[in-house]
Write a structure and sequence with these properties.
By secondary structure, this protein is an all-alpha fold. Helix content is 70%, strand content 0%. The protein has helices spanning 6-12, 25-28, 32-50, 69-75, 77-82, 86-110, 114-150. α3 (32-50) packs antiparallel against α7.
Length: 151
């Protein structure tokens, strides 16, 4: 499955090479490819909402308020094992920024500011997604180097 469509790729800009997670996800506690995919899908859901495909009920929006797998990992196992890596800190910051912008876009939708929500989705949110994917790739590479030098 192609992670990023051509149209979405145009929205978020040039990305680094694909995430090639050579370490076993169970060894580090997370599947980086799955996490990247979930954030791209999350961005797509926000786009659907901006374009009028609103959920049936407020409960359907609960997914945006729940902590995601990456957030849990960044606060727990990831922090204890890889928190000393500069790329870890960069990913943490990019991830916080992504979810903050997603919340702001949803707030604009609820306020009826559709044009403003779309502008923010295309600018701040798409740039934040790009940073998450880039820093996720950087952390993956840092972990690979760390594991390689220990072996």
């Amino acid at each position: 499955m192609q992670l990023i469509s051509e149209k979405l790729g145009q929205e978020i800009g040039r990305l680094p090479n694909r995430i090639d997670q050579t370490q076993n996800p169970t060894d580090i506690g997370i599947d980086f490819v799955g996490v990247a995919e979930s954030h791209v899908l999350f961005f797509g859901r926000v786009k659907d909402f901006v374009h009028g495909e609103l959920p049936e009920s407020k409960e359907d929006l609960s997914e945006f308020k729940q902590a995601c797998e990456l957030e849990d990992w960044l606060k727990g196992a990831g922090a204890s094992r890889f928190g000393q890596l500069r790329s870890f800190s960069r990913l943490h910051d990019a991830h916080v920024e992504f979810h903050r912008h997603a919340s702001e876009v949803l707030a604009k939708i609820h306020a009826g500011s559709w044009i403003s929500a779309e502008h923010m989705r295309k600018s701040e949110l798409s740039q934040a997604l790009r940073r998450v994917l880039i820093t996720l790739t950087e952390l993956n590479e840092s972990i690979n180097k760390q594991e390689f030098s220990v072996s």
